[in-house]
Structure formats: C-alpha cells, structure tokens
Design a protein that fits this description.
Blueprint lengths: L9 E3 L8 E3 L6 H7 L5 H7 L5 H16 L5
Antiparallel strand pairs: 1-2
Length: about 70
C-alpha cells in the first residue's frame, strides 16, 4: 500500500467514537487496532475483527506512525 493511501481509509467524525480516528465504514478505532497488534499478529486481528481488511490494518499502522512522527514526547 502506498504510504499516502491510508488517508482514504481513516476517518475522524465527531459523531463517531467521539471523533477518534476510525476505519472508514466501521466503528473500529485506529487506537484499538494498533493496541491489539501489540499482542497479536495481523491474521489474528483479522479473525477478531472480520469487517477489517489487511489494507485497513496497514492504514492504521501508517496513521499511527504519522501521528507519532508529529507528536513531541516529553
């Protein structure tokens, strides 16, 4: 997946999950996906959330990387 196409899969809607970034067409927050990947691999995550695709998981990773890159940690 080209690194810029993740933007097509992630939405921030104030009426959905209090504006948290989610995968388009779902109520699954990017934070839930990224946190889940700390304990399981992509295949296990896709089994747990069958409405997700592999591209959705990659998009969540790219989003998290971009967010981390643009955030200062003290």
């Amino acid at each position: 997946m080209p690194t810029d196409t993740w933007r097509e899969r992630i939405v921030c809607d104030p009426h959905l999950h209090h504006g948290e970034p989610c995968i388009r067409g779902t109520r699954i927050a990017v934070a839930v996906i990224v946190a889940s990947l700390a304990d399981m691999n992509t295949d296990a995550l896709l089994q747990q959330f069958p409405q997700l695709t592999r591209k959705d998981v990659h998009a969540a990773r790219y989003y998290a990387a971009e967010a981390a890159h643009n955030t200062l940690v003290a």
